[in-house]
Amino acid sequence: MPLTIIHTVQEMQALSDSLRMKGKTIACVPTMGYLHDGHASLIKEAVKNHDEVITTIFVNPMQFGPNEDFERYPRDSERDMAIIEASGGSILYYPSVDEMYPPDYQTTISVSNISKRFEGAFRPGHFEGVATVVAKLFGATKPHTAFFGQKDYQQTLIIKQMVKDLNMGINIAIVPTLRESSGLAMSSRNVYLSDEEKKQALVLHSALMAGHSKIQTGTRVRAEIEQVMIDILATCPDFTIQYASVAEAETLETPDIFNKNKDLVLLMAGFLGKTRLIDNILCLSKS
Ligand code: PAF
Asked: Which residue among the candidates 39, 126, 205, 212 is catalytic per the annotation?
């Protein structure tokens, strides 16, 4: 079946309504395009349990700060469509900026506490932009389930909280981060990295693994876990750390000493040259 491409909210809602009337299950995979194998893995996962998978492509201006990369964010719709089809996706929702934010647009969604730290502290307004656009994409596509990558860990918690708080009745599925064989987390922004920077970027994964090992040895002191990660990141002088932290996986709380029964998440972000990179891994108490 060729990919059905939809550009307007009205047509998207009408299609989703008719699919639901026929008893079809709908999955939504929200993206900003320039798809890679990580996105493909989300679509493939969605296809397993849903009749129709709607991939959305929208580079959302509301989630970019004034000095961020909105203008130069990579775009290639032809290639994206081929990836969606090859992954088994049936529908592409591809609205314009005017369709999403007409001139009289006024509403913003803010998920307060969990948005404040980590990414929220370094990218003011970012999560308001994410929550708002995801709510709008849900309103247009009316999915039963939506799929997100673990790579944007804090984003997944914010979306889960929003869905719960606003009684949206959508199941949120999180798919593990896909990595290059070198360990580098797949990201559309990796295209900004030179070959040399791609090699240097591996320091993030090494630092996460070191933090993970420290926890596995029984340490629950936050400063000790963070220090091993900072020491590894410091071996790459071209990497400027924004944060290298450990937090409770469910709440992102950061007590000085963690309860040994809590699942933890190691999170980091910083700049390699002009490119901002983020990564994380989970450290489950039962593993
Ligand atoms: O993770 C992303 O690509 C974006 O933040 C999302 C969820 C598509 C919203 O624009």
From this structure: 39
